[in-house]
């Protein structure tokens, strides 16, 4: 990735990290008008950054999160004594004569900070496999797939626009958003030879369609009573589950009112 593309991904990641805090903070300070203003500004900025990545840098299917979290165990450097053991030519493993089980030899045991329970071959294979996945270029998108990804990127803006036109109690914004999400997924489903991260992203988007059960006005009219009833039954009749379901019953209404939790 080029340096400008990395900067765009960084800014996009920062926006996704602070969007909920910005929404709740502006709602506390400037009220409902300030809350919707910051929502529109953040979604507009995210859409511009994503469209630049898609159309200018040909980044393909957009991942979430934009930057893969750092795996500190994999990035941990070898200690000097580990490097000496690896470069000394000693065998790192011992194969049992009867069981054929591969175990680490005592001479090549690493320090406690960098120790792991797998065999060296498994560690090296997993690291090389992850590195290969990270370095895979994005799948080139045709005109249809680019249009589908553009639909997914601009869906929040169209949803906010429809909210301003028809209001929060109308079914039209909910239906419009659902149609755009389903259309984008159906158009992207024709892509072949996707890499592992892209397939995982499409699965994530498919699972997120369940959020429409928690989004107003469907939640207010149909889902709320049934979900709370199910949680209450689990808390009353399943031993031990109440420690999870009762706090969830108290948290769900507050979560549902935060835009970036259930729509972002």
TrEMBL record:
<dbReference type="Pfam" id="PF08610">
    <property type="entry name" value="Pex16"/>
</dbReference>
<protein>
    <recommendedName>
        <fullName>Peroxisomal membrane protein PEX16</fullName>
    </recommendedName>
</protein>
<dbReference type="GO" id="GO:0007031">
    <property type="term" value="P:peroxisome organization"/>
</dbReference>
<feature type="compositionally biased region" description="Polar residues">
    <location>
        <begin position="106"/>
        <end position="116"/>
    </location>
</feature>
<dbReference type="GO" id="GO:0005778">
    <property type="term" value="C:peroxisomal membrane"/>
</dbReference>
<keyword id="KW-0576">Peroxisome</keyword>
<feature type="region of interest" description="Disordered">
    <location>
        <begin position="74"/>
        <end position="141"/>
    </location>
</feature>
<dbReference type="InterPro" id="IPR013919">
    <property type="entry name" value="Pex16"/>
</dbReference>
<keyword id="KW-0962">Peroxisome biogenesis</keyword>
<feature type="compositionally biased region" description="Basic and acidic residues">
    <location>
        <begin position="122"/>
        <end position="133"/>
    </location>
</feature>
<comment type="similarity">
    <text>Belongs to the peroxin-16 family.</text>
</comment>
<feature type="compositionally biased region" description="Polar residues">
    <location>
        <begin position="74"/>
        <end position="91"/>
    </location>
</feature>
